[in-house]
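User: I'm putting together notes for a lab meeting next week and I want to include a structural view of one of the chains we've been expressing. I don't have a solved structure, so I'd like a prediction I can at least talk through. The sequence is below, exactly as it appears in our construct file.
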Amino acid sequence: MNIILPIQKNKTGIVQFCISKTAMQRLLIFMIAGFISLQSNSQDDQRIAMADKHFDAGEYFTAADLYEQYLHPVKKEIPKANFPLNSRRYSQGGNNGSINKLDVLYKQAESYRLANYWPEAAARYKDCFEKDGAKYADALYWYAVCKRSLGEYATAEESINNFLRNNFIGNTYWQEAEKELQTIQFIKKQVTRPDTGLYQIKKTNTSFGTEKGMFAPTRINGNQFLFTSTETDSAVIAGVNPFHSRLFYATLENGSLKGIKPITIQGTDASLNQGAACISANRNFLYFTQWKKENGKNISSIYYATRQDNGWGNPVLLSSINTNGYSSKQPFCSADGKKLFFASDIPGGSGGFDIWYATIQTDGTTGTPVNAGTVNTTGDEQAPFYHGTSSNLVFASNGMQGMGGYDLFSAKMKELVFENPENMGYPVNSSRDDIYFYALEEKELLNNAFFSSDRGSSCCLETYTVIKSPKKKMISGIVRDCKHNEPVADAEVVMKDITGKTLKTTSGPDGKFSFELAGDVKKQIFNVSKEYYNEKTEGTVFEYLNDSDWRIDIYNNIPLCIEKIEIVEKKLVIKAENVVTLYFDFDKSIVRTREIEILDSIYSVLAENNGATIQISGYTDGLGTDEYNRKLSDRRAKACADYLKKKGVESARISFVSFGECCPVEMELINGRDNPDGRSKNRRALINISKEE
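Assistant: Thanks for the context. Below is the predicted structure for the 693-residue chain, given as structure tokens.
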């Protein structure tokens, strides 16, 4: 049925006309479809604009989600009865031709990368350069970076080499790609180091569960620690990120953080983030970072709060280390209570963020900041930790050769100056971000230490513990003849430490010997003895340390020389009137009172005859082993010599020799029975006096 209208002007002057009912329906449908299309394009534009806004503000994960809503919108069913037209005309997510979906996909890849969601970023970068390699050549570089971050080093190396082969030197990321290749090669060397077996790395569990990490640990007391983590605000405000970093107490039990509760700081601004904190050595002051985003940039400042009965007082800005327009963050209190270390980009540094320190005053304020010097680079150095026991500064840096992201470095302080930093290596460092190191003062640097890393997470920092078994320590040396400088084989070498613990070995054919060390290498004493040589005792004196082996440190001691006793005949032929005999108690080398009187008489003879010399011969009875008796007889002869030396007789006028159980003067067994009187006569020292004629 058609509706016929007369062709005439109405009162408004508009021409009226006739149209069929079917045409009218089609016209209405066309108008509705056009409206829907315009509405859809408007929604797309708004979604992209909103995503870009979050991206520019540094809220990358939110931006990635909004880009995803544009790229893969939720399709709504359109009733076919009402809209019997081509469905493609009304499909959701269409665009007006001004938005390139690959551009959006690349922006989403950037968002995921900057939010540290590496698998998602890698997949989208790969899609971009595979669909348009000329336009999205940069995506190949970033794909390699993502794969390196995921530990897929072979794929990363292949991709970066492909990027370098197919892009001109003038490419924006050419130099960065060359650095990335060096990083991958550095990683390959690190992961194949033989000493990695000395390390144990373990993730610290939390009662928060696996989805909420805790990082930046510092100890308060005993097994109570202070951590930083994320908390959801109770009052959600539209347009405001409800997630904020906050400080928490936690107790460490059997490798797990338990009893987690928030730290109460009076008067804090709920819109700000708090974290990366420390407590002073006297526990009176809490130093912490507060930060917020301004124009897409985090602006950080360091505050301190004073301990109160019910928590911590109102935050006070540390004016000496904060400068308007710059950021200071991540304070660390030294164990001696003297220094506050922190990271800052204030003027006077080497590049981005530098490591600084300032003196802590008694009222909690700090003095003028001092730049840490050699540890800083043109890149960023962050999260300082100072281990007073070993005088090591540990910090994170992206300005030196590392494994990717932030690596942990250590630098030893000598005479108030830090030495050149060294990469702490794999597996402490990974291809992701490794930061916020903390070790207990009473232990070695890598003995049950903490650090934070996102290596085991899709995005966020979590806390790990590291234990490095100490390298095996050896001390080696050589025994030589003092006169001829030749190696002495089969010499007995005894090493004793200050606790009295002794180790014994024998020099080899080349005179060399070695011991495994358990204590301080500087507090060892050697005793060297060999038949027909004078016994020698002296402390350790090191020539050099050989630490080239990943598993063993070898301390090389200076040669130990012993003097050979020149004996013409074992049985001495002496005149009776020139020989004096001293006797000793069983198994003793202490000079008895009566024998002291004899030695005093000998001293008088030597004092009256300046040219006179003596030879002392030590003997034992037949009980005991040959080796033991030789040493005992040597001690007896030496005891006599030491007494005369103390009275003033020159060493050059005294010589002594030990014969053990040789040459008994009395029988020790009579008819198979023990003869104690005979044995007592054999426990002796003979002193032969040679007078100048």
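A couple of points you could mention at the meeting. The mean pLDDT is 85. The first helix runs from residue 21 to 56.

User: Perfect, that's what I needed.
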